[in-house]
Amino acid sequence: MNIKSWHTDKKPWIIAGPCSIETEAQFDDTVGQLVKNGIKTIRGGVWKPRTRPNSFEGVGEVAFPWIKAAKKKYNVDFAIEVASAEHVELALKNEIDILWIGARTTVNPFNVQEIAEALRGVKDVPILVKNPINPDLNLWIGALERLHDVGIEKIGAIHRGFSTYQESLYRNIPLWQIPLDLKSRFPELLLINDPSHIAGKRSLLFEIAQKAMNLQFDGLIIESHRNPDEAWSDAAQQLTPDALDDFIKNLEIRNPGFPNSSFQNQLDQIRDEIDETDKELLEVIARRFDLVKQVGNYKKDKNVAIFQLERWQKILAERPEWGKKLNLSPDFVKSLYQEIHDESIRIQTDIFNKK
Ligand SMILES: C=C(O[C@@H]1C=C(C(=O)O)C=C[C@H]1O)C(=O)O
C-alpha cells in the first residue's frame, strides 16, 4: 500500500465538535463558538454505536439539514462517522466533507469492505480510520488497505486507544507503540490522536494530547459541547469551545526536524555513544545466555527440570532492587527479566530437544 500525504494545512489539524448532534440549537451554538475560536473542521455524531441498548443512539438523518445550514453559515468542513454503505450514501448525498470509520467498525472486515465499495470512485472525500477496539495493528492496516484498494487517496488513521477489561486510568488504554508502528510502516499516513476517547474524562485530556504532539501526530480530534455536563453522550470527556481554545493554546507543538547543525552534531555524538553502549549491552546479554546454555546442558545430563521456581523468584525479587540503586524503574527491570527468563526457557528447551 502506497499512501501519500495529502493534508497540507498547518499542523496540528484540529477536528472538534460535539460527541453527538442533539438539537439544531445545541449544534449551531457549539459550531458558532468553535468557529469563533478558529476551528475549521467540525465533528459531530449523527449515528452513535453504543455499548448497551437504550442509550441515546444519535438523532440520525434529521441532523443533515442542521449540518448543511451550519456549513453554509460558518463556512466549515464537516466530519461524521459512518458504519455502513447506507451511512456512506446518505453522507455523500448530504455533502459531508470528511468521513471516519469507528473502532467498532474497523474490527469487522465485512463492514469495512462494504463501506469501501460504497466509496469506490469517490476521490475528494477523505476517510479516517479509527484503530480497532482490540490492539491488532494488522486489522487496522487491513481496513486502510481495503479503502486504498478501491482507489481512495485521502486516507488517514485515528488513534483512539484500545478496550481493556482491566481497571485502567484511561477509558481506552493508549498503547502508543501501536500507532507509532503504523507510522513507521506508512510514514506519509496522516495520523490523528483522539484524546477524548482515550481519556474518558476531562482531567486526562491535556496530557494525552500533549503526548501526541511530542510524538509528532498530525492532528487531534476532540469532543466539544456548548454545555458538556448536559451532553446526551460522553458528558465527562467533552470541553466547552472556550476551554478547548485554552487547551489548544497551551499545547506545545514540537519541531519535526532539527533547528541547526550544531544541534544535529550534539545529537549525533550522543547517538554514537548510545550505539556503543548498545553493542556492550548485547555482548553482556549474549554472555548471560552462554551461561544459561551451560546450566541447560547440566540439567539435561541429570534430567533436571528446566524451570526452577525458587531461583526465578529470587531473581525477580533481587533484580528490581539492584536496578533501583541505578535509578532504573523497578517495573521496567521486572519486565526486562520476564523477557530474559522467557528466552532462557526457550534456549534450554532447544537444548533438551536436541538428540
Ligand atoms: C538458568 C536457569 O534456568 C531457568 C532460567 C533462569 C534465568 O534465566 O536466570 C532462572 C531459572 C530457571 O527457570 C537456572 O536454573 O538457573
From TrEMBL:
Superkingdom in the source lineage: Bacteria
Coiled coil: 260-287
Enzyme Commission number: 5.4.99.5
InterPro entries assigned: Aldolase_TIM, Chorismate_II_sf, Class-I_DAHP_synthase, CM_dom_sf, CM_II_prokaryot, DAHP1/KDSA
MF-aspect GO terms: chorismate mutase activity; transferase activity
Domain Chorismate mutase positions: 261-352
Keyword annotations from UniProtKB, A to Z: Coiled coil, Transferase
Name of this chain's protein: chorismate mutase
Record-level GO BP terms: chorismate metabolic process
